[in-house]
Every structure is written in C-alpha cells, then in structure tokens.
UniProtKB/TrEMBL annotation:
Protein name: VTC domain protein
Pfam families xref list: VTC (PF09359)
Lineage: Bacteria, Bacillati, Actinomycetota, Actinomycetes, Kitasatosporales
Signal peptide segment: none
InterPro entries: CYTH-like_dom_sf (IPR033469), VTC_domain (IPR018966)
VTC domain boundaries: 63-245
Amino acid sequence: MIPALRAIARAAMAARPIPLSELQARAELMTRVDHSYLVPVEVFADFAARLTDPHRTGGPFQVLCINGRRWFGYHSVHYDTPDLRAFHDHRQGCRHRYKIRERLYEDSGERQFEIKLKGRRGETVKRRRPLLPGEATLGRGPRGFLASVLHGAYGIAAPRDLVPSLVTDYRRATFVADGRRITCDAGLVCRDAGTGRSVRADGGLVLVETKAAVTGHLTEEDRLLRAYGLRPAEFTKYCGAMAALRPGLTGHQWRRAVRTAFPREAA
C-alpha cells in the first residue's frame, strides 16, 4: 500500500462514519467553491486528526461509509474534442468553460455522466445524469442532457465531435461537516486515451480538495492547510494530467503543480 493510500485509510478508520443519504443532506454541494492542495502524507495525518477529533469545536468531521467501506475506487473517462477545446478553454481562463466525464464508482458499479461548469464568481457547478446499465456514454440521452445543460448555462451549443481524452483511476475518502466536504485522493494514475501513455502521481502526496458553499470566505480547513505552509495548487486532474502527458501543450500556470504531483514525469 502506497503511503498516501495508507494515510487516507488510517484517517478514515479513525473518523465517525456517516451514510451517503446523510452526507447528501448535509453537504451535497452541487454548486460550490473548491480548492485543491497537494499535501505530504505527514502533514495530512495531522490535518485529518485535527478535523476528526471528537473534541473539535462544532463537532468532528465524519467519513462517508457505504456497506462498511470508508474509501472507494473511482474510474473516470474525460471527453474532449480532438483538438482539446475544453483543455484550452481552461488554459486560457475562458468564461464559458466546462469539463465532461463519465464517472464509475467501482465499489457499487454506479455510473454517472457529469458536466462541471464554471460560474460567474468562479464557483464550480456540477450537473449529472445517471447512466443506465449498458447505456452508451455519448448516446442520445447523455448528449441531449449535455446540450440542455450548456444551452441553459451558457447559451452555447454542445460540441458534436467528442472523444475520450483522459482516463483516471484513484482511491478516495470523503469527510463531511455541515455545508462542507473534503475529498482525499490517493494512488492517482492517469492515462492518455489517445496515446495510451500514463503517469502516476507521487505516492507520498494526498490530493485534498476542500468544497464549501459560496460565501467569499476561507473555510477552517483552508486556513488550517495554509497554516502548514500550503497554498491552493493550480491543479485539476484533467488539466494537470494532460499537461504532464503531453508536454507540448501550453500549460504554464500548471507547471509547478504538475512537477509536484508527477515528479518522475517532470524529471
């Protein structure tokens, strides 16, 4: 077991469990502000222990638990145009930018077709639609859903020439408090769907994402991570991995985070 996976497993086992239905009621956060951090395992262990401490003021963060499991496998396929329009829209900071993916929850077999949009204030807005057993990811139903979401959010047409661009696999533990959620990912492996080339994230880092309602203020967990000397990383799995897998792509704003997350590739 790599150090990052061991770290999230230990943190998850030390926390009080919460079922999925209660997590969704307390912090579904389909519209939210999120920040990403690349956290060394030693720092993560102390960070998680503080947030899940039973004596924490306001009560401890709890961990998602489904059928006795506290960390889960995620398999995602990201879709883009052949010229990577979605990637370059994010690189250029375009106002109307979005990501398209299919997510498979490996432990349950559930599949979701998801679209992540950027709101006017920089917030993340997620829209999703369950995929039925055997349903094609880019079949008529999902494409209709994509067209409806993009027209309603941005007044634009959906791209027609979508192809798989990136495949990601990782393990995740999710911690929750009222109105806030923290996802902790380990063992990230990313594969270029076009070339077959893959990169593996540093096994000594936990990718922590803080998610909270749009308030304009830093959360307690953001302030705590900054107290460790960490700052939000210019990093998303899709854009960071594509920049690592295809060095010819222009992605200067992600260069530092990519070097940290994928040190072997940077070397």
